[in-house]
Amino acid sequence: MELKKKFPPFATAGSHLNRLYANKHPIEFQAVLQKAAELVGSPRLRALIDRLYHHQKLLTDFDAKQILSALQCMDPTAELLLPLLTVLSNATAYPSNQLLKREFRLTNRVCIANMAVSSDNMDVMKLALNHIVSPLTNLSINIRKDQIQKFVPVIPHCLNRLLVRGEVNLNALRLLVNLSCCPDMIPYLLGNKSVSGLLRILDTDRDEVLIRAVTWILCTTSAVGALNLTYDRISEHNSDPFHNPSHTLYYSIYGPKGREELETQAKHLTNHSNKNVASKSARLLKTLANVPLFPTAGSHLNRL
Length: 304
Prior knowledge:
InterPro entries: ARM-rpt_dom, ARM-type_fold, Armcx_regulator. This protein is mainly α. The protein has helices at 2-6, 16-24, 26-40, 43-54, 61-73, 81-91, 95-103, 122-132, 148-151, 154-160, 170-180, 186-190, 207-226, 231-234, 249-254, 256-269, 275-288, 299-303, and strands at residues 163-164, 167-168.
């Protein structure tokens, strides 16, 4: 209870709640912000994130207090914000951490993510789904066919965040893998606007990125081959205002140029030192052979 008096209401810096608290307790509020700022700017926060990510799965009261302090004044563009939120997201898989996060008012700031793993949270998830789907970057849940329309709005948000300043957003990639595990979601996914330089996600030396990138494209390609999805069958989901096929994710992966690049990358990755990456790349090449070639301009005239 001492803690609730010591820390201001949990909200973004400068928000309405923080301003009210600062007006009532100016000295205390400034002290809290100063301590939080010192934490954000020190190696201590990086060490905390590293420890929680690699060695320790259960949060302590002190950990929660440190995280709360950092989030209280951290700039939204801060380098360590995404790693910190990733740690919190992963920690949510443990029920004891969920209780601790609620007690320390951390739940207000992070996405639901791994809370979906626990069946005890399903009732809450169903009620919250429509409100949280647009900002989601990570989700651990099997998507049923009757749930597809609820998840469709997250696709453009996810693709927009896939590459940030040339770097792959691992959380966005995780969600794409999750979405592609539902074959009926694939036409909606492939009809969305593509990402410039999409296949650069395969050109990385980070194994955690590469294995998910290959997995995503393999799952998507498997569904395309199994369901015999041509552009004609996904065209109704084309989100481009002018319905231009070349602006779709489908074209970026399976159009003439994209397909050639994908085959080249996959062949190269079959020799990767990571056996998981190598085997999935070999499967991708075989699966890609079942995907019909994208029709070239004037091909309908040739058939005539």
